[in-house]
Specification:
elongated; alpha+beta; single chain; 6-stranded antiparallel β-sheet
Length: about 600
């Protein structure tokens, strides 16, 4: 080969990359992918080049040295791949100056070339079309006919006259008639040849004119297509400029990402790992009030009176239920949401504010009459009981019978100096995801929950690739910057659809709530770093939050995406906090969500 091929040169003729040149070094490259997928070697604009599939085609590089070959392969694209105007259905060899079209006349076009171009890689020989060759043959036929006719004229005019002899009048007249007939035939042949030449020559000229017109129309169509693509690109650039200068509007965010934001319905319960039974908080009624019970241990620590019994159906089940929001971060079905939505047993448990407290061994079933009544009422919002108010069910607790505060432990004699506790586990009895406009939900499973903040990763099995949001690549959040929130707050109006179904001959009419996302906007009001000290080491606590001015939302929006003006998710909407008439909303920084996507250390 006359030289080593160093690079593949792509010259874009039309599409979003019109008039651009891409040079792709070969090196160890084995294939050049083509499509709208951003990871493609030759990537096209997903909006402007809409006829191009995500994974449209590939240029495969085979062999090496003198045996180097390039093949164009269509990857099952929707609109086809064309090589020099012909749609390919199997591997096609590529040569320099070949024209490739993606999706036909409406798709982008580019030429393939090599640098340096080896002598063995000459451009493809241009083949004259059958119509052109036919016209050539017709012209040559006309020219031959005309030449023959002229030769006959010359031959007739130069023929030697016969020897004159005495002839009669009839003979003379016969000779004159024959001469006239011969001359007429000769001139007829000449006229026919000339007419054939003119006709065929004129036909060739006419055919050439038609071809020129068609070529002109094709060039005009290409110019119009290029102009249209240029206008589309200009509009896209204007949109980018608008986004960079002004930012995306709430409507822009809604139109682009509402389909990737889902409603999450949840229900969970807490179970004792030793017995597998559900756990309840014991309640008692004294006077008019029925309150949950607590037990004061000998060391002064107050614990919940947890039990595995609920014969009277009066105890409080340690469980949770409700509705939240989530958003798709992977086409394969992964979503981010709040930990308190996907794993409620891993966050602080919301208990009634007041409760009865008993001494150890007390309760209605105590043998000592003095211990049968509570020693007082406690307020969980008091600083004295902050530990109770911050109880996380997964952390475990002490199990008691339903009538007397005697702990159930190993051999029924727990070591109270060690505050021996049972271990608990939470289970989701319902974790269902519903997308906008959907009548049916999809079951989800918990993948991981953050150990540092209120964030969780869940997974659904979807038969289709899902629309997804874009996560911010960094943690740059500025006070005062614009934010937009999507989600499913319970306070929003609901879309109700009446459904009429016929099953087993019976007609049933029911009203179904069809979920649709709610969009709200505001600004970043404050940033909380949430640092705390433990054993002389500074750690980041779950209190690291973004305070928002987004007030037209509330319960049910937990886990929804918080976007910045560029349309990137910077946080997970978490909850709101009120004091008097004032209310603020809070979000978890997206870095805690990104951490859940990394199963291994970077």
């Amino acid at each position: 080969m006359g030289g080593v091929v160093e690079r593949v040169v792509i010259r874009h003729l039309s599409g979003s990359k019109a008039n651009q040149i891409e040079q792709l070094p070969i090196g160890d490259l084995k294939e050049i992918t083509i499509g709208r997928d951003p990871t493609s070697k030759i990537a096209f604009d997903p909006t402007i080049d809409g006829v191009v599939s995500r994974q449209h085609a590939v240029i495969r590089i085979e062999g090496e040295g003198d045996d180097l070959k390039f093949k164009l392969i269509d990857l099952g694209s929707s609109n086809g791949t064309f090589l020099n105007g012909q749609r390919i259905s199997q591997d096609a060899e590529l040569l320099p100056e070949d024209k490739i079209e993606l999706g036909g006349a409406k798709g982008p076009k580019f030429t393939f070339d090599l640098q340096p171009r080896p002598a063995s890689f000459a451009a493809r020989t241009r083949v004259i079309g059958i119509d052109d060759s036919a016209a050539t043959r017709l012209i040559e036929t006309a020219q031959t006919a005309a030449s023959t006719a002229v030769a006959e004229i010359g031959s007739t005019s130069t023929e030697a006259p016969p020897h004159k002899a005495g002839v009669g009048q009839e003979t003379v007249q016969r000779l004159i008639v024959e001469e006239r007939r011969s001359a007429g035939r000769t001139w007829g042949a000449v006229a026919a040849g000339l007419l054939a030449f003119i006709a065929l020559g004129g036909g060739a000229v006419y055919w050439k004119q038609i071809k020129d017109d068609e070529r002109h129309q094709a060039e005009l169509a290409d110019v119009k297509a290029d102009a249209k693509h240029a206008d589309q690109r200009s509009a896209a650039l204007q949109g980018e400029v608008k986004t960079n200068l002004i930012g995306m509007t709430p409507l822009d965010i809604y139109n682009k990402y509402s389909n990737a934001t889902a409603r999450v319905d949840l229900r969970w319960r807490l179970f004792d790992t030793q017995t597998g039974k559900p756990i309840f908080h014991q309640t008692f009624r004294f006077g008019k009030d029925t309150l949950p019970a607590y037990v004061r241990l000998p060391n002064g620590k107050v614990v919940r009176w947890l039990t595995l019994e609920d014969d009277q159906r009066s105890n409080l089940q340690i469980a949770g239920a409700g509705r939240g929001s989530g958003f798709v971060i992977s086409e394969q079905g992964y979503l981010l949401t709040n930990k308190h939505v996907a794993a409620g047993w891993k966050v602080t448990y919301d208990s009634p504010r007041l409760g009865y407290v008993f001494d150890l061994g007390g309760g209605p079933g105590a043998k000592n009459a003095k211990l049968r009544k509570p020693i007082g009422v406690i307020d969980l919002e008091s600083e004295d009981y902050a530990d109770l108010n911050m109880w996380v069910p997964e952390a475990g607790g002490v199990i008691f019978p339903s009538s007397v505060a005697i702990p159930i432990g190993r051999n029924n004699i727990p070591d109270m100096t060690r505050n021996e506790q049972r271990t608990f586990e939470g289970r989701n009895e319902q974790l269902e995801v519903r997308f906008p406009g959907a009548r049916l939900g999809v079951n989800a499973s918990l993948v991981r929950a953050s150990a540092d903040s209120d964030a969780a990763l869940i997974k659904i099995d979807s038969p289709q690739l899902l629309d997804k949001v874009e996560l911010a690549d960094d943690d740059q959040v500025t006070i005062g910057e614009k934010v937009i929130v999507l989600g499913y707050p319970g306070i929003s109006v609901e879309n109700v659809q009446r459904q009429v179904t016929v099953e087993n001959g019976l007609t049933r009419v029911q009203n179904e709530v069809i979920p649709e996302a709610t969009v709200t906007d505001g600004i970043v009001s404050k940033l909380s770093t949430g640092y705390k000290e433990k054993d002389g080491v500074t750690l980041t606590s779950a209190g690291e939050r973004i305070q928002l001015s987004v007030l037209a939302t509330g319960s049910g929006n937990s886990g929804g995406p918080v976007f910045n003006a560029n349309g990137k998710v910077i946080g997970l909407f978490t909850y709101s906090r009120s004091r008097g008439d004032a209310r603020v909303t809070l979000a978890v920084p997206i870095k805690f969500g990104r951490d859940l996507l990394r199963a291994q250390r970077n």
